[in-house]
Structures are given as C-alpha cells and as structure tokens.
Design a protein that fits this description.
disordered C terminus; Phosphorylase Kinase, domain 1; 403 residues; single chain; 13 strands; Transferase(Phosphotransferase), domain 1; alpha+beta; binds magnesium ion; six-stranded mixed beta sheet; binds adenosine-5'-diphosphate
Length: 403
C-alpha cells in the first residue's frame, strides 16, 4: 500500500467534473477520465417521465422573470428569477429574502426569488433529468436542501425551478479565501447540516452520489449549508446494503470501490465523498491525488493510505476526534466504513444534531440517550462510546445561537 499525496483543491483544466459510467465500464481504460463525453446513468426503477408532467416553458416566462445568470452548470446555466406579480402562485417554494444586495434586489425585500436551472436536453440524458426532479419532489422536508418547486420544458431545454439559497458554493467560498482551511468549529457546523440532509435523503431512499464542494451552498454569515444537484443520485436505494452498478461521481471525490468497478453501496459512497469534503475544509487540500490512486488500484498496489498534514503545516489545530472520524469515513473497505447514521454518534459530532431543531431547522437525525448507534449499514466500524469527553468542549462546541 502506498501513502497518499495530498493535492491541490483547485480545479484542473484537464479533468472533467464527472466520472462517467462508460469511462469505467469496459476495458481497457487508457485515461481515468475523458473530458467531453455525455454522462450516462441508468435507473430502471424510475418509470415516470418528468416531461409528461412538465408544462411548456412559455408558461414559465409568464410566471417568472429571469434577473441574472448565477452560475454555469454542467449542462446549461443557473439563473436567478423573480415571481411575476401577475404570475400564478408558485406553491410551496416561495422564498422570502431579507438581504440580497449581491443580486441587486432591495434589502429586506419580500419579493419571492427562485433559481431556474436550465438544462440542455441534448447534453444531459433523460435519466439525469428524471432523477433530479424525482429527488426534488421527494426531498421537501429538509432545511438543508433547497426545495424543488416545478419544472418546464420545450424542445431544447428542461427548466427546474428551485428555492433560492443565498450564498455561494463551497468551492467558490474556499477559492475566495485562497483555499485557506476553515476553523474546526465552522467545519463542524457545516458537517452537521450536511449529515442531517444526507440521513434524510437516505431515509427517503435517495443516495446523492455526486457530493463535492461545488454541490454544497454555503452562507457564511448565517453559517448555513445546503445540499444541491441530485442529478446523479440513485433512487430507491433502501439501505447501505443496496447495491448500485452505475459508476459515476467526480474523480477527486469518488470512492475506491467505484474506481475498481465493483458494485457498491450508494450510501457508503456518499460517506466517502463527504469524508473528502471534511478533509478539504479542514486542511485546504485534497487527501488523495486522483491519478495516483487510480493507477495504484489498476496496478494492484492498493489504495494509498490516508495521511494528515503536520500540525505545523496547517493554520489551525485539528483535533484527534475529527481525525478519527475522517479515518472512519475514508476507510477503503466499504464494509468497514462508518455509515452515515453512525456519524452523529461519533465523539466529534455527538450532541450536535438535535440542536438544529432549536432553530426551526428540521433535524432528521434521531439521537436518544440509550440509542445504540449500531445500524444494519455498518457492521465493522468501531463504535463510539457515549459520554462527553473534555476535548468535546473545545472550540467545536459553540453555543447553539452560532449554529
Ligand atoms: N438553489 C440554489 N440557490 C442558489 N444557487 C444555486 C442553487 N442551485 C444551484 N445554484 C448555483 O448554480 C451552480 C450549479 O448548480 P448545480 O445544480 O450544481 O448544476 P450542475 O448540475 O450543472 O452542476 C451551483 O454551484 C450554485 O453556484
Ligand atoms: Mg453541480
């Protein structure tokens, strides 16, 4: 087994954001990733076609006014839109903004603003659209997932309307601070919310499968994180035992079992990717070099081992408890990897999840005093003991008001 080479978080021009099924299926694979091929995923269990439910985009232009482009997505663009005064009610997704200076909207505006994700149907296949819409329709109860409102279509594009989340994606946020690591208590707040969103998503039989910095929105002032972009999700993955055969994800975040083309658990692949995110937020660098680990696995050398930077090389001290959690999340053998449900019970995370509910944020993580953290998902991972340790009272445990 080789050791890991931490690598820059900066996007490399030559790597594509998504690892595609056809890049991995079949042999030989000369290059780990190919830049321009259309991504494909299949999910035979999804039979309803979004297009039959979606209204024509003409109706959308009566209802919404596009204000400005927010970001360029992989298959189109994401724009900010307001609900027209004469437009029909937008249903459950109305989002009131209090501050939106960056968008040009007035402060304390009560205007309803939305995000419209426009996807080129030629570039993205039907399953990707179906999955994102199906996930959006199921995952309406989390405070950490922007609500899906409705969809429209025309001959060229599909348009998905979502609740607007005021903030920026975590990649842009880190980039804006030159990839300087965040402080541990700040990372813990982000992780609490993401774990809560993912437990809720898994409970609803949806595995995300494309967790990465770009798919997490963050509001630095409010310390809120939201999970987006369920286009590559696996739907009807009932438990960690459920096996996926569609190899997809983003190279730097994808788990080893996908890289060696094994059938895998979607839930446990989410745990791995979230572990990568945790590492990047704490150290400002990727734990592994994609090409290195890909070639090591292909040549039977085994996946590189996880290593942490020396304390003197990072701006903030990182506790042993969070290092322990990262080791559990980035365990190479998925049967030994910690499950998502167990994460809130680890020393680093414990006592944190149900704080969300104090602030009107729905928590989907049940933590009871006598609850045994063992779940069917993970037989091998070491269990944390209950009870506070002095170390838990360090910087990570801020008063609830700072959540
Ligand atoms: N609900 C939202 N609120 C605010 N910004 C969003 C929202 N959804 C997407 N974005 C912005 O658009 C970008 C691309 O969105 P995403 O859904 O990830 O598209 P893609 O499938 O093309 O990757 C995000 O990184 C974010 O900057
Ligand atoms: Mg995305």
């Amino acid at each position: 087994m080789t050791s890991s080479t931490p690598t820059s978080v900066r996007r490399k021009a030559h790597t594509c954001p998504v690892l595609k099924q056809e890049d991995i299926l079949g042999s030989p694979i000369s290059e780990p990733v190919d830049t321009n091929r259309k991504q494909t995923i299949q999910n035979s269990e999804i039979t309803n076609h979004w297009a039959s439910k979606a209204e024509h985009s003409n109706k959308m232009s009566h209802k919404y006014t596009i204000i400005k482009a927010l970001d360029k997505g992989s298959f189109g663009e994401v724009s900010l839109a307001t609900l027209n005064p004469n437009g029909a009610s937008a249903g459950t997704g109305t989002a009131s903004v209090t501050t939106c200076t960056a968008t040009g909207l007035r402060r304390n505006s009560s205007e309803s603003i939305f995000v419209i994700k426009k996807i080129d149907k030629e570039k993205a296949n039907d399953t990707l659209l179906t999955n994102e819409i199906e996930a959006g329709s199921r995952l309406k109860e989390s405070s950490h997932i922007p609500k899906f409102v409705e969809s429209y279509t025309d001959t060229k594009y599909c348009y998905m309307v979502f609740e607007y989340f005021q903030g920026m994606n975590l990649y842009s946020f880190l980039e804006s601070r030159n990839f300087k690591p965040l402080r541990e208590h700040q990372v813990k707040r982000i992780m609490r919310q993401l774990v809560d969103a993912l437990i809720y998503s898994h409970q609803n039989k949806i595995c995300h499968r494309d967790l990465k910095l770009e798919n997490i929105l963050y509001n630095h002032k409010k310390r809120r994180a939201n999970l987006i972009d369920f286009g590559l999700c696996a739907i009807n993955s009932i438990s960690c035992a459920d096996i996926c055969n569609n190899w997809c994800g983003s190279p730097d975040y994808v788990c080893p079992e996908i890289l060696i083309q094994q059938p895998y658990s979607g839930c446990l692949s989410d745990v791995w990717s979230l572990g990568i995110i945790l590492y990047v937020l704490l150290f400002g660098q990727m734990p592994f070099n994609f090409k290195e680990r890909y070639y090591a696995l292909q040549h039977g050398d085994g996946h590189p081992e996880l290593e942490f930077p020396n304390d003197k090389d990072v701006p903030h001290r990182v506790s042993e408890q969070v290092k322990d959690l990262m080791k559990k999340m980035l365990t190479i053998d998925p049967r030994q990897r910690i499950s998502m449900e167990e994460i809130p019970h680890t020393k680093w995370m414990k006592k944190s999840m149900n704080i969300l509910s104090l602030f009107g944020l729905k928590s989907h993580t049940a933590i009871h005093k006598d609850e045994h953290p063992h779940t069917a998902c993970n037989k091998g991972a070491a269990k944390e003991e209950h009870g506070d340790s002095p170390a838990q009272k360090e910087e990570g445990d801020q008063p609830p008001s700072q959540l």
